[in-house]
Amino acid sequence: MSHLIGRGQYKSETYPGRGASGGSGGSIVPLSRQRFIDGGTVQSGRDGSVARPFLTIAEFTASRPNGTVPDRRNNYVGWVTPAIDGYTGVISLPPNASTELRADSYSNPTLGTSVTGNVFWSNLALPETTGPVTAALHNVSVVGQVQITDVAESPISQFFFSADESLFLGAILSGGFVSNTTVQLSFASFLNVSVDNSIDAGTSVDSAAVLLQGSNVIGGIAARQLNCYNSVLAVATIEAREATFVDTSFESGTNPLLMVVIAPPIFDGPSWASFIRAGGTRSAATAVLVTGGYNGAEVAGAALTAASTSVALNGAGATAGFTGSNSGNHYSTADVTPTSVTLLTAGALPGDTLLITRTDLVASVLAVINGGPGAGTIGSIPTSHRGSVLARFNGTDWLFEAGGSLAA
After folding, report:
1. Tell me, what's the pLDDT at 109?
2. Which residue, 25, 67, 200, 339, is most buried by CB atoms nearer than 10 A?
3. Beta-strand relationship, 2-6 and 9-12
């Protein structure tokens, strides 16, 4: 190529210019912690530079320096270009080291960058503390499974699987994710991707938390803690110790079973409504909290039948038979027996609501009582009337919000 050097004079040089040795036409020296991978390259002397990219991902992972703690802790990035028919073979990410595979292309496997084969990250014991290490795949689809293993002496680790495109257009993980034996994996994050098989991170106190954002999951989910935002779940089971669902849709007819036993899962109203429409049920020990209580979305508790009953949004401290899956934010009766129901404050946040209804013209008065320190009856459904009392929690006590009764 030629370029102007001044006063109408031109100079010719061979692209890409002078190499590190100073000679014309020399190679480009690789960046210190980034390499390039091109499955269609015909270059010899491959060193991961843009002029001499690696042919395979295995060449890239083998090039990773990890002789020192700073080497292992700091990220080492492989830029993967699209390749005809993609990349094939098992990928073994370097143990106890931060490594990232990243593509700057459309991430769907039919057109973008994809790998056919399982991805393994086996973190081993180290004699010294490495600090948190990270494995990340961005805009890279995997036709296979991601498996992570470690031991108690391994460094704390994190995993990211992400894409630039939105839900259903991003990267795909066809074989699912497994880390159920790990004890040092702190969390696994899935952003704008489809996981076309289960996510099994385990549910022990040492298992990983799972973050889903703008993603789709098919099969099932197991995690120590699940945080799900703006995602679509077509799952048969969800098992966790804690869980949160915001702007989450559940595929119709999947009949998901929710098993969360340490802390009640928290739903926003639309997510809980979608869960119910999908045929969702909860295990016997699983209570559910909806943001805003009854005004957010109805969570039906067990029918009131005893003369005097105590109930709570999360079932804590409630009368036997109104805990776990029998707790909720709406309790109803058509029985002649109940004469009072006390609303406990457990699980309630300011602004939460709880509804008590009677659906039959029974000959008794049903009193709704504040179970907070203010005590006292906040509303009553008179004898021979159908009716309801909606209570609102102010942070200390349950207060009358709305209600009414009908004599017919």
Report:
1. 66
2. 200
3. antiparallel
386-393/398-406 β-pairing? antiparallel
The identity of residue 323, as a single letter, is: T
Residue 333's H or E segment, with its range, is strand 330-333
Determine the average pLDDT of the residues in 296-304.
96
Mean pLDDT computed over 178-202? 96
Question: Helix, strand, coil shares of the chain as percentages rounded to 5?
Answer: 5, 40, 55
pLDDT score at 322? 96
As beta bridge partners, residue 238 has 221, 258
- 113: number of CA atoms within 13 Å, CB side? 24
Report DSSP letters for 4-50, one per residue. EEETTEEEE--TT---TTS-TTPPPPPPSSEEEE-TT---SS--SSS
Q: Residue 291: inside a domain, yes or no?
A: no
Residue 15 has pLDDT above 70, yes or no: no
**CA–CA distance, 127 with 154 (Å, rounded to integer):** 9
Residue 9: band (very low, low, confident or very high) from pLDDT cuts 50, 70, 90: low
Q: Which amino acid is at 59?
A: E
pLDDT, residue 21, reads: 40
Distance of alpha carbon 56 from alpha carbon 345, whole angstroms: 60
For residue 340, list its beta bridge partners: 308, 367
On whether both 41 and 190 belong to a single domain, the answer is yes
Which residue range is the domain that position 4 belongs to?
A: 1-30
Here the CATH number for the domain that contains residue 123 is: 2.160.20
